[in-house]
Amino acid sequence: MKAIVVNEFGGREVLKYADLPMPESGEGEVLLRVKAAGVNPVDWKIRAGYLKDFYPYEFPIVLGWDLAGAVEKLGYSARRFKPGDEVYAYCRRPVIQHGTYAEYVAIPESYFTVRPKNISFEEAAAIPLAGLTAYQSVYDAVKLKAGESILILGASGGVGSFGVQLAKIVGAKVVAVASKRNHAYLKELGADEAEDYASGDFRDAVKSVLPQGADVVFDCFGLEALAKGYDCVKRGGRVVSILVRESKELAAKAGATHHYVFVEPNVLELDHIRSLVEAGKLKVHLSSVHPLAEAARAHEVMETGHTRGKIVLKM
């Protein structure tokens, strides 16, 4: 099979389009034919070696934790699906090695579920990591409720885009922070207000629309924005970040709780997300789609940090 292989950590030049042996589906596993694979910021960070001290890995590494595809072959005792079933998955394994930048991947059948039928494979592949991250942040970690307000930092990226929509689904007021060129896009997703991080300090603008502070701040951007976000949360509020593990000093000063989310596989939540997509309540925006062989170009676009929605590789 064809795959994008990393034999050493480094820049985009280490991404090699190469032949690899077809994976075997072991007990309880299923061989999937990958139709499309999502590209996420964590992919280039793994490629560059930034996470090598945090997560076990083995070379050669095939990157990618998102996929949409079809069941090709069942391993022993795998019985939930049949060949030809169309599925999608967030398939991070304990060891970073066998990813989804490949024509085939073998994963436990507990990792995937039926994909949304009303969207393309490319759109389905854009959902799992970003969609589950937003879901587990907004619904599980801080348990956002109807009538509450949420400030989303880095709202136009993959996770933020899903966060805006999931927050509106529960009936929250959404204030989104992103570059001005993305404000119309965020309003289309349902944001009530959009503020520009590039035109200066967004805190005054946020406080003008949320004078009591936000019930929840959702950080998809990083420490610099998070520090400002803590100035915008009400006392007793909740802050959730997908990038900053802890922030004791800021949380104590603001009188808020800090939550950190590193997404976990969860097929029940993927099933719920599928139902929202099929009901037209949750939409997927593709920033760009690239052939598998052009993974380096996809990483180049991703590394700018200014993408709107998601980037996907197609097989």
Describe the structure using short key phrases.
single chain, 315 residues, alpha/beta, Quinone Oxidoreductase, Chain A, domain 1, 2 domains, seven-stranded mixed sheet, six-stranded parallel sheet, 31% strand, globular
Topology:
Blueprint: E1 2-6, E2 15-19, E3 29-39, H1 41-48, E4 57-62, E5 66-74, E6 86-90, E7 96-98, E8 104-108, E9 112-114, H2 121-125, H3 128-141, E10 149-153, H4 158-169, E11 173-178, H5 183-189, E12 193-196, H6 203-209, E13 214-219, H7 223-230, E14 233-241, H8 248-254, E15 257-260, H9 267-278, E16 286-291, H10 295-302, E17 310-314
Parallel strand pairs: 4-7, 10-11, 10-13, 11-12, 13-14, 14-15, 16-17
Antiparallel strand pairs: 1-2, 3-5, 3-8, 3-17, 5-6, 6-9
Helix pairs in contact: 3-4
Describe this structure in a few short sentences.
The protein has 315 residues and is an alpha/beta fold.
Helix and strand string, N-terminal first? EEEHEEEEEEHHEHEHEHEHEHEHEHE
- CATH class annotation of the largest domain: Alpha Beta
| Secondary structure: number of strands | 17
**Named CATH topology of the largest domain:** Quinone Oxidoreductase, Chain A, domain 1
> Whole-number radius of gyration?
19 Å
Q: Which regions are unreliable across 5 or more consecutive residues at pLDDT < 50?
A: none
Overall body shape: globular
CATH superfamily of the largest domain: Medium-chain alcohol dehydrogenases, catalytic domain
What class do helices, strands and sheet pairing give? alpha/beta
Tell me the domain tally: 2
**Count of helical regions:** 10
Distance between the termini: 11 Å
Helicity range: 25-40%
CATH architecture of the largest domain: Alpha-Beta Complex
